[in-house]
Amino acid sequence: MRGLFALTAGCTGGSEPAGSGTTSGGTATGEASTLTTGGTTPTTSSTTGEPPPPPTACAEPTTLSAAPRTIAEAVAFINELPQPLTLDCFLERLERPLAIAATKSVISLQPAEGASSPRLFLFFGEFVMSVAVDGHGFQLLEFGEPVGQWRSIKAEVSFPLTDIMGIEAPFTRVLRDPGGGGTSCGVCHGSEAPAPEYPQAFASDALRFPDFELVSFADLRGEYERCDPAAQPERCARLTALFGHGEVEAAAFPEAMPTIYDYE
Ligand code: HEC
């Protein structure tokens, strides 16, 4: 079953020359140009090569890039990036192509603000990270690390960060009470149980959004292309952190993964 995620996420791992899965410092000539491989951006010039990338959201320019496959790898990458660290900097530095699915679902901790500001899921193989485009949960990065079929360890990071983060922080953040009685995520994600992979971690059911709550990739890209920074600076910065720094592609949860409606 583990392969399904990679297939449906359109993961191109095998065809990537640079390898994947680990944090790397980039090469001397790396810069952003190695990441900007997409030929789909209408503004790309065919004669002079690629347009300059948008200004960085990072505290200082960096060539660091990573494709985290676990919460531990994501935390390690977070701790390498320059501080103060915004969520947009983290998103900007994730390896491309970035595989994204968007939903207008409003039943979650990061509810979509309608179809124009959907909730986004980023896929690195079966590892899922979730961010909002606007509104509630805008500073939160949610994790779902797969453990067995349709189960994932849940954790969360709140940005901006001004200090190195301990590996326990994303897990203790979501605890419902210090006694270890489960997480706030367990309210919706059923069958929660302690996860031995990390201290104080819990795993629970993995959930996808149903098809009728999908926001198409074309619509999502349109929101980026139409975004007016003068009117909505933070929302446009978030969309730019995702779309402005290299190739982005449509992804999907495996069809067989349950939705929240399957509980009824
Ligand atoms: C109010 C209900 C609700 C709560 C609370 C909730 N989620 Fe979810 N979550 C959902 C729904 C519904 C989905 C399916 C996608 C969608 O509709 O947005 C989902 C999907 C996910 C996914 C995608 C796949 C997977 O592994 O499940 C992740 C990751 C996730 N949530 C993380 C979290 C984390 C971390 C927390 C706690 C901090 C949390 N969620 C709390 C409703 C909730």
TrEMBL record:
Annotated region described as Disordered, given as residue ranges: 9-61
Residue ranges with Low complexity bias: 29-49
Official protein name in the record: Cytochrome c domain-containing protein
